[in-house]
From TrEMBL:
Cellular component aspect of the GO annotation: cytoplasm; nucleus
Comp. bias regions, Basic and acidic residues: 253-264
Region (Disordered) residue spans: 253-273
Entries under InterPro entries matching the protein: AB_hydrolase_fold (IPR029058), FSH-like_dom (IPR005645), LovG (IPR050593)
GO molecular function: hydrolase activity
Protein name: Serine hydrolase FSH
Keyword annotations of the record: Hydrolase
SUPFAM superfamilies, per database record: alpha/beta-Hydrolases
Transmembrane intervals: none
Gene Ontology biological process terms in this record: secondary metabolic process
């Protein structure tokens, strides 16, 4: 499996390769996958007071935020209690950011740029997204499924790993972008997913909201016990490697079976593939230090 790796806001392909390095090396050592790294197309300066937080410049975002940004709103959400339902928290975020909504053109351009990267490398069949990159990756998966339904084209992404993620976005009205939330949209991602987050993440609600819109029988979550980070310590990396050693071969075997079934169905003239063709049992893991 080959993953397209999408960094968070104020990141870069180079910096994300460093962030993901220990886990990527562990997975490559186990012979599970390879990686290619991308980044947003909009070069940005880090927010005031965070100049040294995001790593070496240049830094990028997938979204063009020159007409307004929601970073200050996100900072305020760090104080929202985790006891509030994830969907309610996301709706609060959207209301707090009223007037700063990303225009549909900006979001369309961001998704199109990632689809272009996908089209340029036919070997990519998985996504790893961190923070904003997870939101973009989740949205791409939803749109790819919608395109497949409309045109019958083959879906490329078979497995996704979301680190401190956020739910996919959708168009609403003439010029708004809103999160797809479970209590409004239901399940919108049916492929196998692996969700990595920390119980001490100030933005935990967004990761939970993403998990909730993924098919539960195909979704696995892992709590590394830390904050809004890509886990790099040896203990967490080792545990994650072991979990993915169990999950990924099953995913690939299921994909091979699904491809064979689809080919047989097409040859019989029936066409199509349903959700049951993506199958791996959902589980929850949490890191418990020795």
């Amino acid at each position: 499996m080959k993953f397209l790796c999408l960094p968070g806001a104020y990141g870069s392909a180079k910096n994300f390769q460093v962030q993901l390095g220990p886990l990527a090396e562990e997975l490559e050592r186990r012979g599970l996958c390879t990686f290619t790294y991308s980044q947003g197309t909009h070069e940005v300066d880090p927010p005031q007071g965070w100049e040294d937080y995001f790593g070496a410049r240049p830094l990028y975002r997938f979204l063009d935020t020159r007409q307004g940004d929601t970073f200050e709103t996100l900072r305020r959400l760090r104080h929202v209690p985790h006891s509030m339902p994830a969907e309610d928290t996301m709706r609060m975020f959207q209301k707090a950011g009223h007037g700063e909504d990303w225009h549909q053109r900006v979001w369309r351009e961001a998704l199109d740029a990632v689809f272009k990267t996908l089209d340029e490398d036919p070997e990519i069949d998985g996504i790893i997204g961190y923070s904003e990159g997870a939101m973009v990756g989740a949205s791409l998966i939803v749109e790819e499924a919608e395109r497949a339904k409309r045109s019958g084209c083959q879906r490329r992404i078979k497995f996704a790993m979301f680190i401190s993620g956020a739910p996919p976005l959708k168009f609403e009205g003439k010029d708004r972008i809103v999160a797809q939330l479970f209590d409004e949209a239901g399940i919108v991602i049916d492929i196998p997913t692996f969700h990595i987050f920390g119980c001490d993440d100030a933005f935990l609600s967004s990761a939970v909201a993403l998990f909730n819109v993924c098919e539960p029988s195909n979704a696995t979550m892992y709590d590394h016990g830390l904050g809004h980070i890509v886990p790099r310590d040896a203990e967490n990396v080792g545990v994650l490697g072991g979990i993915l050693q169990e999950i990924m071969p099953k995913v690939e075997e299921d994909n091979r079976r699904a491809a064979t079934k689809e080919q047989q169905t097409e040859e019989s003239g029936l066409g199509g593939m349903d959700k049951s063709d993506f199958a791996t049992p959902g589980e929850f893991y949490t890191f418990l230090p020795a």
